[in-house]
Fold this protein.
Amino acid sequence: MRAPHDIGGLPAGPVDTEPHAATFWEKRIDAINVLLGDDKRRILSRDERRLAIESLGEEVYQTLGYYERWTAAVTRLLLQKGILSQDEIDAKIAEIRARMGEAEEKTEA
Amino acid sequence: MTERTSHDHAADEFQKDEEIHGYYQFLGLAIEELLVEKGIVTGDEIRATIERRDSITPAIGARIVARAWTDPPYRQRLLTDGTAAAEEFGCEFDATELVVVENTPEAHNVIVCTLCSCYPRMVLGLPPSWYKSREYRARAVREPRAVLKEFGTELAENVEVRVHDSTADMRYLVLPMRPDGTEAMDEDALAALVTRDCMIGVTVPKV
């Protein structure tokens, strides 16, 4: 059976040839990946990341955008390596949501 | 009153025109802030990395192609050892090899990464979104002529199409054919004809 990332030769629709510039968020995810794998840190290798992306499972792989898959994969690796904990991540997400929500209210006011 | 002292908060740097929504977007910001708080990466390193990435554009690849068109010994070096020849232009390779494939009147080359998104980033910068799309990855190897047509490129039936599937360790770059009618052009003028899509092989340079 084919793994979800192994799509070469499968039927698919027309290519959206319109170029979409990388967003600031995407560039940050890219930068974090570069830094975590650089010689200074060597926290995760390119092959580890690829394996993590390929192991996300069919549904996650199909549903997420490209850099969302990267984000999911890097998160799993950082959890596995004990560098971050799920509790820390959940708390930080709540904090950012609250902070950004406040900023939005300020703008509207 | 909310205290706002830190500019190391990733979320604070977003411009108004970029909406952050959805779990994974917040997750990405959370990971970044936690890594900064733990001292694993710094905000300056992230900014410097983005700047370095942004500085690598297809203009570098275009200069390499224009040099190959005007300097036969360089063309030979480029085809023999693409990595070393690109390093002459300041490109940095990290345990990755660059293989340059040359278009001829008999054969046209196209590059793809069917499994993910491997791309000659060191020469062209970040890949266009369609290069990473399911449609391009799936179909480029099965029906390249049909895919090229979607980019407005029609090849004569007698031209062989060679599709190169990239890997993390081996990236390809297409050396397009120099168009007719460019004999009087200098290297800079020639480089201006060479687009990113020509070097992926989905289009050809036009005068």
